[in-house]
C-alpha cells in the first residue's frame, strides 16, 4: 500500500456529505437548501450528484411561477453557478443526462458552457433524436485535443450515413404514374425533390431538414479547421 497517499479531513467530510446529498436528492420532494447549494458549489461536487441537481433545476423551471417556493428559486438561481464550478466532464455528464425534459434549456446551457460532446451526441443519434443532435453539433468545447478528432469524425460519418426512413416509390393513378418521393412523415413529393415540400415538414429521406443539413456541413468545416490547426502545430 502506498503510504504517501493522503486524504485530508476536509476532503473526507466533503465526500461524506456528497454521498449523503445523493441519497437525499433521490427523493422527489427534497431540494437543496441555499446552504446546501453554497457548500456543493464551493466544493465543486461532481459525479452522480450532477444529474440529480439538474433534475431539481428542471422541475423548478417547470413549476408554475406562482407555485414556486424558495427551494425552487434557489435551484433556478444556483444551478448555472454549479455548472460553472464543476469540470467539463462532470458538466457534460450532468447536462446530457436529460436532453428531453426541456430540450431548449439543455441546448441553451450546453451552448453557454461550451459542453460539446461527440460521445453524448452519438448516443442521441443512436436513439433517433436527430434534431437535438444537430443542434448540439454547433456547440463548442472549452478546448480541444487531437484525440477529439476521431470521435468527431465518427459523429460526422454517422450523420452522413443515416438510414433512409422515407422512400422512393412507384405511384399509380388515373392521371399517370411515376416515381414519387415519400418523406418520413408520409407526404408525397416529386421524385426529384430532396426535401419535402409540405408546409411545416421539409424533411429529406433521412429525416433531416435543409437547415439541419447545413448544420452538419458547418460541423464538417469545424473538423477540417481543427485538423489544419493541429497539423500546423506539429
Secondary-structure topology with pairs:
Blueprint: H1 9-25, H2 34-42, H3 49-62, H4 70-85, H5 88-95, H6 103-112, H7 118-126, H8 130-136, H9 148-160, E1 167-171, E2 178-182, E3 188-190, H10 210-232
Antiparallel strand pairs: 1-2, 2-3
Helix pairs in contact: 1-3, 2-4, 3-4, 3-5, 7-8, 7-9, 9-10
Q: Characterize the overall form.
A: globular
Rounded mean pLDDT score: 92
- Oligomeric state of this protein: single chain
Percent range for β-strand residues: 5-15%
Report the major sheet: 3 strands, antiparallel
- Name the strands of the widest sheet in spatial order: 1-2-3
User: Which H/E pattern describes the elements?
Assistant: HHHHHHHHHEEEH
Strand count: 3
Helix/strand-derived class? mainly alpha
Count every helix, treating DSSP H or I runs of 4 or more residues as helices.
10
C-alpha end-to-end distance = 41 Å
Radius of gyration: 23 Å
pLDDT < 50 runs, ≥5 residues: none
Share of helix, binned: 40-55%
